Amino acid sequence: MAKVAPAKEKKENSKNHSVRDGIYIQGARMHNLRNVYVEIPRNKLTVVTGVSGSGKSSLTIDTLFAEGQRRYAESLSAYARQFLMRMDKPDVDHISGLCPAVAIEQKVVTRTPRSTVGSMTEIYEFLRLLFARVGRTISPISGKEVKKDDVGDVLNAIRQLKTGEKFYILAPLHFSKNRKTSEELHILIQKGFSRIYDHAQKKVMLIDELVEDAKWKMGPSSYLLVDRLVAKKFDEDEENRIADSISLAFYEGEGSLVMISNEETFYHFSNRFELDGILFEEPVPNLFAFNNPYGACPVCEGYSQILGIDKDLVIPNHRLSIFDGAVAPWKGDKLNWWREQFLKGAKSISFPTHKPYGELTEKQKEILWNGHEGAYGIHDFFKEVEQNLYKVQFRVLLSRYRGRTTCTSCNGYRLRKEALYVKVNGMHIGELCKMPIRDLANWFSKLSLSAHESTIAKRILIEINQRIETMLDVGLGYLTLDRLANSLSGGESQRIQLTRCIGSNLTNSLYILDEPSIGLHSRDTDRLIKVLKKLRDLGNTVVVVEHDESMMRSADHIIDMGPLASHLGGEVVAEGNFEQILSSEKSLTASYLNGKLKIEIPHQPRKHKHFIKIEGASENNLKNIDVQFPLGVFTVISGVSGSGK
Q1: How many C-beta neighbours within 10 Å does residue 230 have?
Q2: How far apart are CA 285 and CA 630, in angstroms?
Q3: Which listed residue, 8, 138, 299, 604, has the most CB atoms within 10 A of its CB?
Q4: 407 with 106: CB under 8 angstroms?
Q5: pLDDT at 17
Q6: What does the buried/exposed string (b/e) look like for 181-196 if buried means 16 or more CB atoms within 10 Å of the residue's CB?
Q7: Do 478 and 488 form a contact (C-beta atoms < 8 A)?
Q8: How many CA atoms lie within 13 A of 561 on its CB side?
Q9: d(Cα 337, Cα 436) in Å, to the nearest integer?
Q10: What is the pLDDT of residue 641?
Q11: What backbone torsions phi and psi does residue 264 show, to the nearest 5 degrees?
Q12: What's the 3-state SS for 420-434?
């Protein structure tokens, strides 16, 4: 594969190759590229390396990917193309063997506050399906599972009755307040019903006789008699007739059905999704969609945050105790009364007023914020402030402590409360989204489902576990599914896109990645390489712009751009496997890899006197740490991915 041959010789050689062997770029001149002729083998992992500005991105992104996009756009109709941005043809003579191209760059692809790690990886979409299909709705009052009955449930109860046992199929009576009792009874006669059963009197009464009885009033124990039978082994025709009676009873009872056997045993069925006097929403995928008005929390509208009292502004220093003035608005001559009254009331409940706020238990923090019988809390203070907003000083005071804070209605879960009643293995979907990916993987490994539920969820669980495994492989096990997409670094965003690509199971495609190992610890780089090889083994061509040595050693093919940057670069100086690159005399990359060139370490580090001091850092996963950064020197912060750098 000579790369320095004249253009004519290159064109002649390229004609002899089959497009099945590789992707051939002929005469690429984008930016600083100097009429580059190069071959990228198909279904292989190719690394494009070289000094910064040597033309790596110009070759891969601006030439290879741009031409792939342009060809896709050209395949669309003229009507469809009018909605796409104009795509100029890259400055290249010809590219043959090009397959559908996907570029995964080092940038955050979305800025919307609604997009999360869960939605980007599509794990959340499968979680929605899982909870809609096998989730169990639990009543917040009794803690019992909410179920709705159908015709089959009533038939099963009838089959359990002893032979010869008499039973009635009844429907609760629902009379309109705007009509007389006699009018309602006439309507029942017109519908074909003839009897009413009074459970209190254990008596069956004819409706015709009740019409003439002006004294009769419908009571809570009065039911419409739909059918009465004697238990036995029913044949198919008889069961069909009973099923019709059951359906009719559900209809007339507005979702409720009562069955009484031997005038003693009382069975109640409901085909409505209700329990403890609450009508619950049936689990459907949209109930768990915070981007859908149906499932989103009505207060925060699915954003998880509202404009309210910012706790970090109210208590900025968690190392101070209540006695030492941890509550910022309770300072000063006039507002100090709130602090004094809380200190006095705290004695009655043995509240630790001298303990730093950060060391208080959740229950103690709740007492501080909500108050107790003997003292007012912080929320009571701000209610008082809001009642005096007609005064300028109170408006100014309130504005100091307002900010984006967790929604008090959904507790930051983004969903309406009905969605949080649905649980799988005792956890609702919001709790799973707040778990780190590594903990979520452990939870799914221990997930216990019934045989029927396992059959339903089998395919869903395969998709979820596959994506979680890939997230762990690319070193993102520390992220949570509810982490906002716009808070991710470029490298994290790129690896998440890589997870989605593997989950899509596309084949015969070209994937171009821009330095995916940036920010990764050596431990995680090896995992990333395995993921890229997995993508290749699916039948794809993977092209990676990279400088990492371990990535180059693992590559099937390496293209080294150079020799230098800008107008001194733009050429292919070496090509082949890792050993062939090492033997190249023109390659600057090879000189550093084989040790001919190296970056000298200063013998005497610079001295320093002053520091930037940080105390009690607790952002994200930081554990209340103290640290000093020396001024005037070069400082490196290292550690595995997700360690808190």
Answers
A1: 10
A2: 53
A3: 138
A4: no
A5: 47
A6: eeebbeebeeeebebb
A7: no
A8: 30
A9: 43
A10: 67
A11: -130, -60
A12: HCEEECCECHHHHHC
Query: Could you tell me if 513 and 531 are in contact, meaning their C-beta atoms sit under 8 angstroms apart?
Result: no
The Cα–Cα gap between 425 and 136 comes to 9
HEC profile of 202-252: CEEEEHHHHHHCCCCCCCCCEEEEEEEEECCCCCHHHHHHHHHHHHHHHHH
Query: Is residue 351 classed exposed, middle or buried when 0-12, 13-18 and 19+ CB atoms within 10 A define those classes?
Result: buried
Pairing of strands 22-28, 92-96: antiparallel
pLDDT value, residue 93: 93
The pLDDT, as a whole number, for residue 16 is 47
User: Bridge-partner residues for 296, per DSSP?
Assistant: 415
Distance of CA 49 to the CA centre of its chain: 35
* Cα gap 13→10, rounded to integer Å: 5
Dihedral of CA atoms 24, 28, 31, 34 in degrees, nearest 10, equals 120
Of 337, 402, 397, 343, nearest to 367 by C-alpha is 343
User: CB burial class (10 A; 0-12, 13-18, 19+) of residue 391?
Assistant: exposed
First to last CA, the chain: 44
CA distance 273 to 149: 8
- Going 387 to 393 to 395 to 399, the CA torsion angle's sign is negative
For residues 377 and 356, give the distance between their C-alpha atoms in angstroms, rounded to a whole number: 17
Residue 6 phi/psi, 5-degree rounding, is: -60, 160
605 CB contacts (<8 Å, ≥6 apart)?
633
* Cα angle value 340/345/349 (rounded, 5°): 140
| List of domains in the chain | 7-104+507-593 (3.40.50.300), 109-146+280-304+407-488 (1.20.1580.10), 151-272 (3.30.190.20), 326-404 (no CATH), 601-645 (no CATH)
Q: Which residue bears the tokens 């190992």?
A: 517
- Tens digits of per-residue pLDDT, 517-551? 887 777 778 888 988 998 999 899 999 999 989 99
Beta bridge partners of 309: 402
Q: Which of 259, 186, 251, 270 is CA-nearest to residue 227?
A: 259
The DSSP bridge pattern shows strands 45-50 and 557-562 to be parallel
Give residue 13's pLDDT. Answer: 47
Residue 363 near residue 331, CB atoms below 8 Å: no
Q: Using DSSP, how many helices (H) and how many strands (E) does the chain show?
A: 24, 23
What does the DSSP 8-state code read for residue 39?
E
| Residue indicated by tokens 């459970």 | 199
Would you state the pLDDT for residue 1? 40
Token pair in block for residue 487: 């808070």
The answer to whether the bond into 285 is cis (omega within 30° of 0) is no
Tell me: the pLDDT tens digits for 553-591?
A: 999 999 999 898 888 989 999 999 999 999 888 888 888
Report how far residue 368's alpha carbon sits from residue 384's, in angstroms, rounded to the nearest whole number.
16
Query: Would you state the structure tokens that stand for residue 57, as one six-digit string?
Result: 């991105």
Helix (H) or strand (E) holding 544: strand 541-545
Strand, coil or helix: 312? helix
Q: What pLDDT is stored for residue 618 in this prediction? A: 81
CA distance 413 to 430: 5
- Give the model's pLDDT for residue 550: 92
Q: Which residues contact 400 (CB under 8 A, 6 or more apart)?
A: 313, 329
